[in-house]
Amino acid sequence: MACTNQNQRQTSFVFADDAETDTLAENYDLYEIQESGEIIVATLSGPDTYFEFRGRGFGLQHDLAESFARSIGVRLRVEVAHDTTELLTRLKNREVDLIAMKLDATKGTVSVKSHWLVSSQTPLLAESINQWYSPARLEETKKSSSTPIKARRHARPVMLDAATGTISQYDALLQRHASSIGWDWRLLAAQCYQESAFDPQAVSWAGAQGLMQIMPATAATLGVDASDIFTPETNVEAGVKLLRLLNNTFSDISPQSARIPYMLAAYNGGANHVRDAMALARKHGRNDKVWREVEPFILKLSEPRYYNDPVVRSGYLRGSETQGYVEAILDRWAQYRGQARNASRASTPQPAKRSKNPTEVRRPAFFPDSL
Questions:
Q1: Under 8 Å CB-to-CB from 17, ≥6 apart: which residues?
Q2: Contact, 238 vs 203, CB < 8 A?
Q3: Annotation says 26 is catalytic
Q4: In the chain, is it the N or the C terminus that has fewer CB atoms within a 10 Å radius of its CB?
Q5: Residue 367: which of 280, 281, 264, 266 has the closest Cα?
Q6: What are phi and psi of 161, to 5 degrees?
Q7: Measured between alpha carbons, how far is 299 from 133 in angstroms, rounded to an integer?
Q8: CA distance linking residue 8 with residue 274, whole number of Å
């Protein structure tokens, strides 16, 4: 069994905590975890531990836990706690199988430093973790965690032909699918450019793919086969399906024009993170149904003071990326509205109004002040 003497306790990757637990859970060890097909891991949220982006987990502790889960043939489920007290309580109550967090613990008079903590009632799990672990594995995971995926993108022009109001070679495709969710197709085009720069083979650092940057796991839930994810028609259709779901998710925000930035933020960072920002806005006396009052809290979700707040359920978010994503799309939409024809109204393209600041683009005029 692992952790049987002082030297092992000091060098083992996992330490077995001997806090009292429910006797009914004493027999739930490695084999039972394997039989269930899932290991439940608790950790704290943060850029270097665990965070979610587009429905996928990132961070060193996530990557290590995922590697171990694969080694024992189960899927990983991560539960986020607000502090170490909650972590220890959940382990004691056997609500989780292990704590994936570097902790200092004490057993009698022995000070123990370990990366993970398990219950003393799971000796086989502790032994399996320590057999799996090696310093080389830790260093390799640290390296891969800091640079998860090599992004690939070959950018096309922001406007294919300003003279004719043609945004891209996919205009007809975007027009057809935008109409199914009641969107101005130029808004969908602005989002498409932000996602992939109109490159149907684009892959992001997070692993999102195609014109609308669909995550493989999301594609599966939308019924898209992995072999078709780079097909423009299929990819845009999947992106619009996701937008339709997000439209329903934020149906409590009206009118629909006021809902758009929430949908965009959720498309980029996840609906749960957007709801967290809304909860923070409410807590601080702001109107959570007005984007301009929620937007600052999207940014604050990258600060420990805020992502560890009790009202926040999903933890850390790369807030500047999500906020910048929404702003860039809305600005580009304003640009496209001045240069490209609205297919549904067959209006004549109008030149974009120039700003004194060449980098500044006017937002769509019909947006309500509450946006």
A1: 88, 91, 92, 105, 117, 118, 119, 120
A2: no
A3: no
A4: N
A5: 264
A6: -155, 95
A7: 36
A8: 44
Domain boundaries along the sequence of the chain:
6-146, 171-339
- With tokens 């672990």, the residue in question is 133
The yes or no reply on domain 6-146 and CATH 3.40.190.10 is yes
Q: What secondary structure letter does DSSP report for 362?
A: P
User: Hey, what amino acid is at 156?
Assistant: R
Euclidean distance between CA atoms 210 and 198, whole angstroms: 9
**Class level of CATH domain 171-339:** mainly alpha
Residue 316 phi/psi, 5° resolution? -65, 145
Could you read off the pLDDT tens digit of each residue along the chain, which spans 371 residues?
444 443 433 456 877 776 555 555 567 999 999 999 999 999 999 988 998 877 788 889 999 999 999 999 999 999 999 888 999 999 999 999 999 988 765 556 445 566 899 998 999 999 999 999 988 888 888 887 765 555 566 777 888 998 999 999 999 999 999 999 999 999 999 999 999 999 999 998 888 999 999 999 899 999 899 889 999 999 999 999 999 999 999 999 999 999 999 999 999 999 999 999 999 999 999 999 999 999 999 999 999 999 999 999 999 999 999 999 999 999 999 999 988 877 654 333 333 343 444 333 334 433 443 44
| Cα 185 to Cα 320: distance, rounded to the nearest angstrom | 26
Q: ∠ CA(270), CA(272), CA(278), 5° rounding?
A: 110
Looking at 52, 66, 127, 195, which residue is catalytic? 195
Backbone angles phi, psi at 302, to 5 degrees: -100, 0
Q: H or E element: which one contains 8?
A: helix 6-11
Distance separating the N- and C-terminal Cα atoms of the chain: 60
Tokens 């993970």 -> residue: 116
Reported pTM: 0.76
What single letter denotes the amino acid at residue 277? A
